[in-house]
Amino acid sequence: MIKTYGCQMNERDSESISWILSNLGFVETDDMIESDIVIFNTCAVRQNAENKLLGNLGDLKHLMEANNLKKIIMVCGCVMEIDSSREFLEEKFKHVDIIFGTNSIAILEDLLEEHLSTKKQVINIDQINLKTREKIGQNRRYNFKSYVNIMYGCDNFCTYCIVPYTRGREVSREAKDIIAEIKHLVDGGVKEVTLLGQNVNSYGKTLDPKILFTDLIYKIADIDGLERIRFMTSHPKDISKELIYAFDEIDKLMPFLHIPVQSGSNRILKLMNRKYTREDYLEKIELIKSLKRDIALSTDIIVGFPDESDRDFEDTIDLVKTVGYDQAFTFIYSIRPGTLAAKMENQIPDDIKNARLQKLIEVQNDISLEKNKMYLGKTLNVLVEGKSQKDENFYSGRSEEFKLVNFKANEEDIGNIIKVIINDVKSFSMNGEKVED
Ligand code: 5AD
Ligand code: SF4
User: Fold this and answer.
1) The pLDDT of residue 49
2) Nearest C-alpha to atom 2 of ligand 1 is from which residue?
3) pLDDT < 50 positions in the chain
4) What pLDDT sits at residue 3?
5) What is the reported pLDDT for 389?
6) Which residues 6+ apart lie within 8 Å of 241 measured at CB?
7) String of DSSP letters for 199-212
8) Which-ligand-closest: CA of 300?
């Protein structure tokens, strides 16, 4: 059983872990009691993700003791890359058998063998090795859509963020390897790929010859049979004009852009080391809005960054209203030991952070609802993903604009792109009726 916390990068890593273990004869299960191996793939981006891991590890220990179960327990992912957190785990959770970092997945078989022969706790924290990583396949969760890594790591060192420490320096995969992987996926029935990287817009920097992210997208768009291309995550400073124009040029590039702003205050953006101003950001948004196609926008925002004043926060609210995002992922600033912001003065008290988050969520929910109302009566192309998580009687999928759409459909529709006419909208989802061809 694999329990995955955090971002798409981790989900993707878990698919590789599953593939390695399948090749050794294991079968993935959802059943904690039945499982012989339990793996926790951890997230370090905020403290509460770390806390969840410790809670789950404690629960598992009790479950094993109460039922007299024997299991191999592995903990991997970003938290294991932080020395203090890993050492705490080694010390306090002796029942964890194998501990490995984000870049050790390729040698998982060796780690398992070492544990089985020595019965000792095995620990491996490595640097990325693209050659060995390229040899690892994935047990994909869906056969109609897939994440595809195009790069690993991050060089940006935003002052609040732990990722450059947990995932290491930025390394791009060769374009030919990415294209071969996508062709293979499409041959297997995949219609949609999401290109993954911590900062996809700087793709190719480490390659010789260099290649630009936009050029990579054009090459991928040429793959016959591939219908949809998305990418995650962008850094506003690296989004080029060419990339923005590509939305008008490439039909397969879905009209949705996640463009994390983090704050609307220039003072805070500087403290965050984001390397753009509010004005630079809004200029890019204007260019996106001037395109022939309507592009749905989403963002990430942190409230309560050290020294954030009421005025700075108001600047964020103002920016949110100016841009009019379809969706925003909003976070309370969480101190990450080892980052520059953790040492900054004027950390913001929890009650202020919470109040700011509530206010931001209220403002954004209203905007999301207004944006979604514009879809009433419209027919959207929806890639059907499966049964709705909220209501068994409905299926759900994503429109081209990445809207979550619920509708009545059949099992055979899963994996197909169908037409849905929208008749009801909320802030986070919309309902509609399937239009028969
Ligand atoms: N505290 C709160 N949010 C954070 N993020 C990254 N680091 C932190 C932190 N220390 C948020 C950013 C990023 C998203 C993935 O997580 O908004 O874009
Ligand atoms: Fe973290 Fe900034 Fe890198 Fe994103 S770009 S992973 S926020 S350091």
Assistant:
1) 84
2) 333
3) none
4) 95
5) 85
6) 287
7) TGGGTTTTSSS---
8) 1
Q: Give yes or no for residue 409 CB within 6 A of ligand 1.
A: no
CB 73 within 8 A of CB 97: yes
78 lines ligand 1 (CB under 6 A): no
User: Quick check: 48 and 20 in contact, CB under 8 A?
Assistant: no
Distance between Cα 300 and ligand 1 center (Å): 8
Closest CA to 327 of 294, 285, 364: 364
Q: Which fold has domain 142-248?
A: Transcription Regulator spoIIAA (3.30.750)
Q: Mention every residue, 6+ apart, whose C-beta is less than 8 A from residue 158.
A: 262, 272, 273, 274
What Rg value do the Cα atoms of the chain yield, rounded?
A: 22
Going through 233-378 in order, the beta strands assigned E by DSSP cover: 256-258, 296-303, 327-332
- Global pTM reads 0.94
- Tell me whether residue 279 is exposed, middle or buried, using C-beta atoms within 10 angstroms of its C-beta: 0 to 12, 13 to 18, 19 or more: exposed
Centre of ligand 2 to C-alpha 45, Å, is: 10
- For the stretch 359-408, pLDDT in tens is 999 999 999 999 999 999 999 999 999 999 888 889 999 999 999 999 99
- From 3.40.50.2000, 3.30.70.100, 3.90.220.20, 3.40.50.12160, which CATH number describes the 2-130 domain? 3.40.50.12160
CA 33, 43, 140, 257 torsion: positive or negative? positive
**Whether the CB of 45 sits within 6 Å of ligand 1:** yes
| CATH class of the 379-434 domain in this structure | mainly beta
Name the CATH architecture for the domain at 255-374. Answer: 2-Layer Sandwich (3.30)
